[in-house]
Amino acid sequence: MKGRLVVLGEYRGREAAALVVDGRLEDLLIAPAEDAPPAPGAILRGTLDRLVKGQGGVFVKLPEGQKGFLRETRGLTPGQPVLVQVSGHAEAGKALPVSTRLLFKSRLAIVTPDAPGLNISRRIKDEETRSRLGVLAEGAMHGCDFGLILRSAAAAEEDAAILGDIAAMRELAEAVAADLAGKPELLVDAPLPHEEAWRDWTDPAPDEVDEDEGAFERHGVDALVDALLPPEVKLHGGWTMVVEPTRALVAVDVNTGADTSPAAGLKASIAAARDLPRQLRLRGLGGQIVVDFAPMPKRDRAAVEQQLRAAFKGEAAETSLAGWTPLGMYEIQRKRDRLPLSEVLTGAAT
């Protein structure tokens, strides 16, 4: 199918959402197991534990005996209650990364208790629209010290819908901010896949949304997800890329196969660079990533890196392209904003 398709359904008995563009799977959300740790976006009340000077942070006692790790320590003392938001997934055996900088996100607005000021998405260019939204934002946040960001989707919405969205997020933020006293508790859960898809995938507007029973099978999404489970990725041009997560890092190996022509290494490497962000996103992989591109002259590395930077531009997950190692590998650091797909499907908890 041509166009932008959002599919809301189930995969292997779990609530799931898929974004398919021109027949290619671009994003995937699958609900974690019920006993999984809180997902990024969840807001919890915790209690500060001991400072760890060597690691530059403090542990936080979370509900059900879980531990968080907070890097913002200024003005904090052990035993103090604190509101935190899960900011990523933990590596195996480590505490959940959390932050005191809370974000209350809806489809149209983000309320920011720790960042005052009214802001409008830079993607909205029309000055008349920006002016209209600014007036709405100022009125909706009158008497509140919290900050507000109006997202780009607000540009196409009626005033009443925008005001309702802001009011809901402001009310939730004010209620949570006032709920500091008490034992560790989950206050706001992370959104499930269908809610997150409606929140984040509707700008630009999809050409079709299918949320009827059997939607994943009907649109072939089941097969597209199944194709992510083996490590080998078939690239345009007949080359391959193997993506294998290990305990320490994600190893990526690019191969030209039977093509031994002088240009094959560069062409295969460029194909891999263009598809790598999508593969990492769909497979839920982050942390340290080491790419062994196909053999090519050093003079061609600049062209490959240019393709990498273009491909990663606009990715939601924070990504640092560290560059080439002395042995000719390319290093990338990517935020762990999702659980690995393999762990989600097996129900393993980090």
Automatic annotation (TrEMBL):
Note whether DNA repair occurs among the keywords.
no
Q: Where is the S1 motif domain?
A: 41-70
Q: What highest taxon heads this organism's lineage?
A: Bacteria
Question: Record's PROSITE patterns?
Answer: S1 (PS50126)
Q: Which InterPro entries match?
A: RNA-bd_AU-1/RNase_E/G, RNase_E/G, S1_domain
Sorted keywords for this record are: Cell inner membrane, Cell membrane, Endonuclease, Hydrolase, Magnesium, Membrane, Metal-binding, Nuclease, RNA-binding
Question: What cofactor does its activity depend on?
Answer: Mg(2+)
Q: Which PANTHER family match?
A: RIBONUCLEASE (PTHR30001), RIBONUCLEASE E_G-LIKE PROTEIN, CHLOROPLASTIC (PTHR30001:SF1)
Tell me what this protein is called: Ribonuclease E/G
Q: What species is this protein from?
A: Albidovulum sediminis
* Lineage, top ranks: Bacteria, Pseudomonadati, Pseudomonadota, Alphaproteobacteria, Rhodobacterales
